[in-house]
Predict the structure.
Amino acid sequence: MDSSEVIIDLKGVSFGYRGNQSQRPVLHELNLQINRGERVGLIGPNGSGKTTLFHLLMGLLKPTQGEIVVFGKKRQEEKDFREVRGKIGLLFQDSDDQLFCPTVAEDVAFGPLNLGKSQEEALEITRQVLESLGLEEFENRLTYKLSGGEKRLISLATVLAMQPEVLVLDEPTTGLDEDTVGRLIQILRSSDLTYLIASHNRDFLSQTTDIVYHLGRGKLERSPDIS
Amino acid sequence: MASQDEEMHIDNFASGDSLLHRLDPRIKIVIALLFSVIVAVADRSLCLATAVCFSLALLLIARLSLREVFLRLLAVNGFIFFLWLFLPFTYGGEKLFSIGPLTATWEGVIYALLITVKSNTIVVALIALLATTPIITLGHGLGHLYVPSKLIHLLFFTIRYLQVLHLEYDRLRAAMKVRAFKAGTNLHTYRSLAYLIGMLLIKSFDRADRIRKAMLCRGFHGQFYLLSHFELQKIDVVIFLIMMLVVGGMASLQWIVLK
């Protein structure tokens, strides 16, 4: 496979929240291309639209203008994005939004089950993913009794369990202690997935990504080298 | 450890290793349901006496802290106390005593007594049977008894996010406190508390939306799954049969008329 294959291509994408039309739209004719294997960072002030951009990519929001091409296909309808969601895994900012099942095992198995795996296969994947992250002892824990750092890592496990080709992480280091951030850096550096990370933590981005874009005034700009 | 004290009382009785703690949750649910229905409609003393003995026996087998159980019963009887204020004086029948214009009747007192005995019996049995199972396991048990999975997941969502909401409430409350808010009987208090409740509502709304989106991202398409499965052990079957005998006995004491 060509190593410079473009897997995500946003062309002139604009978006503004309804009832906010008098103001500048959140994203304005934004372009972004990500190749397979690329590790991209995204930095920008609060409210600059990083989360909005991710939600557009996953089809949770619809652009007011522009085209979203993922894996070589133009995505418009809900059903186009269903396929995208199987291949791009999004880690939410707040882990309490992501973990909704009573137990860790059930939460991690939820994605694979939705993708049509049998219960045995789903449990097998769950064990593998938890083990690969060094979280095997968490399998039968209750999600609401986990600490913040544990919740974040388990959330990552729920995303990885879907065996995505691309990872999209929304502020993954917020509220984490140094040890957990270190663990996250290790996990990301040892993975061969394509990923896109939004963060305020420049140090974290410099350790995990190759290119960093700056999002501001609705546009993306290549950020000066930060490493 | 203020946060520990304020933690909600879910699964208070669930940790333990008695015979009842280990019993298959499906059996507990079935017995609890049959028992409660029979006790609720029964009016014969022999049947009710058996029921009282049965629920006390369950309580002893479950080896729960009697003090904790008593505290729970106190809460139940708080409601029943009001029945004692009204029932004896509003129920027609033979006069027992009178206070001013109010007349208490034998029938009224007996009726209030009946309700008191019944509710306490049912609550004790439910504590011994259901509260000895973690609520999550109980949900899974219900699922395997063919209760619709949507209802069960509603239960799971409630348990999961009650905690999150409770923390959010604590945070807002603390934020008010550090700015010297003191509840009083004035408009400022009412307005501030209304803001607090409104804020909680909006936050839950937003959270529900984000949870839905997170679920969609993981391929949710309306299908819920239950992963836990239970296997009946021999001891489960034996206990089930014994309990069914007692419950069946209660039913026959209530409904079979000996000539």
